[in-house]
Amino acid sequence: MENKEKSNSWGLIAFIAFILFLVNPIFSLFFIIVTILNSKKIFKNLNLQNYQQNLSNNHKDNFNGIEQSELALEEGGIESGSETEMPLQLKSLLLESSKKRLEKRKKYLHIALNSTLEEAKEIISQLPISDRILIEAGTPLIKIYGTEAISQIKAMAPAGTYIVADNKCADLASREVEMMVNAGANASTCLGVAPIETIDSFIEECEKFNIDSIIDMMNVESSLAILKKLKKLPNVVMLHRGVDESEFSKEKQIPYYQIKQIKGNYDILVAVAGGDDIREVQRAIFNDADIVVVWKSFYHSTKNISNLANEFLREIV
Amino acid sequence: MLDNRSKYLQIAFNRSLDEVRDMIAMLPASEKIIIEAGTPLIKNYGQKGIAALRGWWDEKIQKSGYIVADLKCMDRGSREVEAVAEAGASAATCLGLAPTETISEFINECEKSNIDSMVDMMNVEFPFEILQKLKKLPTIVVLHRGADENERNKEKQLPHDQIHRIKGTYGNILISVAGGEKSRDVVRTFFNDSDIAVIWRSFYEAPENTANLARDFLKLVK
Prior knowledge:
The complex is a heterodimer. By secondary structure, chain A is of the alpha/beta class. Helix content of chain A is 57%, strand content 14%. In chain A, helix 2 packs across helix 4 and helix 8 (173-183) runs parallel beside helix 9 (196-208). Chain A is elongated. By secondary structure, chain B is α/β, with parallel strands linked by helices. Chain B has eleven helices and eight strands. An eight-stranded parallel beta barrel of chain B has the order 1-2-3-4-5-6-7-8, surrounded by six helices. Chain B starts with 7 loop residues before the first strand and ends with a helix.
C-alpha cells in the first residue's frame, strides 16, 4: 500500500518537473533538489511511524482498558476517510500526544502522588486543568502497583497531562526506561548517585524514546560534578532533599544557590523538591527554579491542593 | 531466616511473571537457593510480583522459602519496607548511597516488620564509611557492581578484599556479592568468605536453561 503511494507521488513529481522544465530548466532543477531534500525527511518520518507502530504492537497488552476506550472514543469523533487505516494513524496520534515535552523558560508545578491510587484520584480531581501542572507517579506507588500506577494515573488525569514516572533508576536503565515509556510516562527519573554508566545509558535511552530525562540529585554533594562527567546532558536536574532527611535532620537545606550555578553553566531545566511550605515554593521560584515539586505532607499543611495550585499558577503566569 | 554457617545462591528474576513462573518450576528444590524479585520486576509488577514469587517458591520447596525484594530504597524507607513485607518478602534492599537517615529508618522498619535488611553498596567507594555512620547494622551487606557498569566499563572490579575487612570488624554480619555472573566469579566469591552469591544474567538470557544453570551453580555452593 505504502509502496504504491510512493510510486504515485514519484510520478507526480516527475510530471511537475517536466512542466517546470518546459517553463524554465532552472526551475525544474530547483524543484528536484527541494523534493529530494523533502523526501528524505518524509522517509525518516515513515520509518519513525513504523517504529512506533511496532512498539505499540509489541506492547499492546500494556495499553489498559481505559486507553483503549479513549481510542474508541476518538475513533468515533474523527470523520474517517478510509476506515482500514484509521486505527494505526490514531495510535501514532495517541503516541505523539503522549510525547509531550517540557519547554524551557516556562514554570511548572510538579505534584507527586505517593500514597495510594484512591488518594491519587481524589487529588487529581481537585486540580485545575493547566499545562503547567505535571503529575508524578511516586516511587512508592510504582514499587507497590508496578507500571500500572503510571497508566492508571494517566487515565485518571485530564487527557494530555504530562506524567512523570519517578522510578529512581539505579541500574539497568534501558529496561526501566522502556517500561516507563510503555506505561505512558512523559518523563522518567534516574538517581544522581547511580554509576555514571547507568546515568549515561539512561539519558541515551530517554532520548531514543523521546521522553524527558530527569536526574534526581538526592544525597549528591555537587550536582555540577556529576553533570560534568556525563556524555550528554539530561533535560532536567532535580535538586532534592529526601523525606527521611527532612524529617530526621531539620538542619539540612535545599541548596538553592546551586540553581543559578547549574543554569549558569548549562542550558537545562532545574527542579526543586523537598520544600515544606508555600514560602519555600516562592523561594524556589524566586531563585529561578523551573519546576517546583510538592507532595502530600506539604499540601496537607497548606490545607488544600487546589488553592495551592491556583496560587502557584497566578504567581507564575 | 538465614543461617550464618551456610552458603547461599541468590537468583534474581527480571523477566515477565509468566516466564518467571516457568523458571521457578525448573529450579531444584534446594534451601540454598534464595529467590530475588529484581528491581525491574518490582517496578513492573509491584507487590503482586513479590507475592507471586513467594507463592511459587513456597509451593516448589514445600515450605516457606527465602524471598528478597530488591527495592533499592532511596527515600521513604518505612513506607516501602512495609509494602514489601506485606507482600511476603523475607528481606529488602536499601541503597548505601541513600541518605544516612533513610538507611537507618530502613533498618529500623525491617526489624519492626521482622524481615532482614540488606544494604546495597553499589557505587559506594568505601562501604565502611557508610556502616560506621549507622546506628544499627543491617543484617546483610551487599557488595555490588552494577549491570550497566559491568557492560560499559570492564576495568571496575568487585571489591572482594572488602569481605574480610567487614567481617573482621563487624563479626556476625552477612556478606552478599553481586555483579559477577560467571561460575568463576561465584567460586571466587565463596572463596573470599562471602555468604551469598547473587546471579541473574545467565538465567535472564537463557530462561529455558534454568534447570541446568541452577544445578551447575549449586555445585559451587558448599
